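Good morning C.,

I know you're traveling, so I'll keep this short. The sequence:
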Amino acid sequence: MTPRGLTLVLVAALAVAWPWLPEFTITLLCYIGLYSMVAAGLVMLTGVGGMTSFGQAAFVGVGAYATAWVCTSPDLAAVLGGAIGPVGLPWLGLLLGLLLAAVVAWALGAITLKLSGHYLPLCTIAWGLSIYFLFGNLELLGGQTGTGGLPPLVLGGVSLAEPRALGPVIWATLLLGLWALHNLLDSREGRAIRALKGGRVMAESMGVDTAAYRVKIFVLAALLAALSGWFYAHLQRFVNPTPFNLNIGIEYLFMAVVGGAGHLWGAVLGAALVTLLKSRLQDVLPQLLGSSGNFEVIAFGLLMLVVLHRFADGMWPTLAAFSHRFLRPARKAELRDSQPLPNPQLPPAGEVLLRTNEASRRFGGLVAVNAVDLDVVAGEVHALIGPNGAGKSTFFNMVSGVIDPSAGVVSLMGKDMTGQPARAYAALGLGRTFQHVRLLGQRSVLDNVALGAHRRGRRGWLASMLRLDRVEEGALLAHARRQIERCGLTPHVDAPAGSLSLGKQRAIEIARALAGQPSLLLLDEPAAGLRHLEKVALAKLLAQLRAEGLGILVVEHDMEFVMNLADRITVLEFGTVIARGTPAQVQADPRVLDAYLGGADEPLEAAA
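The tokens, ready to paste straight into the viewer:
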């Protein structure tokens, strides 16, 4: 049996047993379903997107209070004039709750998601507390007393007033949401989302608008929380501020982390464990201690410390690894045949692709790059060399949009790129690798390489969730496989990128850069960590790319590799160009010999 088959069996068993389960169990299952919606949003936000939020309970409150106000406000009833009856008011409340949650999340996300480190979680605590106190101080929402008398949901003429009737709708909604989120992650858009946690610099260099994607995930998590709040309000038929305070927001985050913050089903597991554990402790501890109180909070906290210490990645990965003994892996769905991606027309040989004019970069009083003039033309390999600390990587970051020049101009394809982000460079046909390998270590080689083709797809989030992107996805993955084969990585196509050697990881980065079909390729120490035969294969690949018309700018310390490959060489020392020309001219330059060896009496070949 496959994991998918087991999931269907468990869902069917729950559906069959539902009419005979005790009322208390039904209520617990309803709450587990509601909490799982919020935790699933946090898995997307925290586990996948790399952003921590303690304020999701506030968005649950937005969804609950929106429907409570719509269903009980006499002013709104007067405005509607009976156009929408009691049966339709909760659905109007759902629309209002989702709209408010999206607007509030977008406004808060646009401000707070620019922060990083511990500042982002602190901000979520701040606005989570603010929204909670807002609920309790607005008289039109009932203040601290709350609002009661909410009508039950009615679906297809059937009243869902009781938990036994509403529970199946909650779980059906949850399962549909998990299916949509799984589809999203298994797509071009999902690879971009995962890249946010792997490194925003890398993602931007692949053409991903990281700021927009962070806000989108934040809004998505808020919508899931608001949907949970809407169900909660009509399950309880009463709303007050208590269930939406900061403590509950922390519990939601615990659910996601304990279950497995990087796994969608971990949200369900975490919600079930936390809910059942709290319920059990509330019954057992007063009997053991002989008095009532909030002792379960203390025990719950200690148990969470043990769980998090023992299962650092959450409990779902451990459970999944155990189940693999009895379940066979699910076969990956075959994507439909599609037309290959069109190959863009490369610039003619000799055309200038990249040019810097007096480009400088200062960090306070340190001049890392000083008035460098350099150009790269189509159909050549241009090497940038120099001793350690010469400013080569700083220059690379400056001509790829990671940092802006302090002075001077960087032009790409004849366009002034001053102030442009790295994704704008990628859009014009620049691909790059990094000095320190930046990959999604837990994802396959295929996923990593396909990320490089991000700009070549157009289908958005909704199409991905509904699996309407399969033709485009098939074309992107087929294109990625061709680049993998080109770089000699075919035997490792499904292996986690982080499990391969450093040399193979550098080859993955080159394949990923090629997947974007660039006109200009920037390689930062591509031969570092490679064995001799791997260097020979790399040199052969770069020579082939040069023959196809690509312009290549390479930073490398392996002098033998550089001298045998480059058409032109520029030498930096302390951020300043000290020599430029052919390999033979550079090798004979006394200033280069002095920079590398401290004197001009020994040949440069000794540096190799």
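Safe travels,
E.
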